[in-house]
Amino acid sequence: MEVQCLIMLTQTKRCLFCEQTAEAEVTEEEIRFSRCICCPEGSYLITRQALEYLTDLPIHEQRGRFYLISGYIRECSEETPEVRIDEENVDSIHVSPMVPVTLDEKMDKCLHYLYRACNGTSKTLELKHRGASFNITYSPNQQEFIYILEELKTRKLIERFGFRLQLTPEGIQEAKELYGGKRLLPCLVVMAETGPFPQGFHGQLAMTLQECGYKASSLLIESNGSFEKINEQEPESAFIKDQMEQAELVLFDFTLPSPDSYYSAGLARGLGCKTVYSIREGELAESPSWVRRNSPMVWSSPEDFLELLQEKLHLLEEEEDAVQSV
């Protein structure tokens, strides 16, 4: 029997997008960069194939794309544990709807960032990386970033004291409207780490939930059916209960049969949590009867899953609005 060994080397390499030297974990297939300007508090992963494609681009195309990819990584890293750049998304990030084009759109990104970072309050935020924060607004350089800050100050949407920023009441209201008038609500996701879902899916899911007004945190199930994050703790641990009590919504996918996820679903029901169930087409007949009785979303592909989830969450929002209007 042939045994394949994954060799990982830790070294320093230059990030292609922010040009900062950063710690890099290198394997034969991919590189993980940690704590560079693109991802100050975490890491992002890029496959060798995607890296080679980008380095082969003409210089003018690199200059037009790389700072946008840096902004994309930074924004996505706030919503998902690790951003992945691979051959499937490498040629579309710079034209993603997430990427701002005009100065007004970039100002919206800045308000959006401050609103998230300060939890919708007028708390003062000091930028830690003073000379390297311009990717917050997807700007190509510091000069444009400073111009955006000054323009926001002129419009009385922020107060600025050097690199200490504060939303004004008008800025908070403007940012709320960017969120659709709502702060992001915590959502706990309980699903398989891999298996039925491709690499990078959890990041796409986090962004879909954000568009629907939710901020995702995850309890991922490994192939052995146990939770990944809890280490040696039992499913009954206070950690899971605490996560569920904080969540406004708990999303369960039962495609991978797991005693831990079944137990957690019962716990969520006992706590009175709002829940959404899902399962892959073909697995429904073999699922427990209580899963079938709760009308789970039945999906055929990861793309189908995201579309059905958006429809389900919009329907839940309409039902809640109808109840509140009575």
Description of the molecule:
- It is a single chain.
- The protein is of the alpha/beta class.
- The chain folds into 3 domains: 8-93, no CATH class; 101-177, Winged helix-like DNA-binding domain superfamily/Winged helix DNA-binding domain (Arc Repressor Mutant, subunit A); 183-323, Rossmann fold (3-Layer(aba) Sandwich).
- 39% of the residues lie in helices and 20% in strands.
- It is built from 10 helices and 13 strands.
- The strands form 3 sheets. Strands 1-2-3-4-5 form a 5-stranded mixed β-sheet. A 5-stranded parallel β-sheet has the order 10-9-11-12-13, with helices on both faces.
- Helix 3 packs across helix 4, helix 3 crosses helix 5 (169-178) and helix 7 (238-246) crosses helix 8.
- The longest helix has 24 residues, at 302-325.
- The radius of gyration is 21 Å and the shape is globular.
- The termini are far apart.
- Residues 1-5 and 230-236 have low confidence and may be disordered.
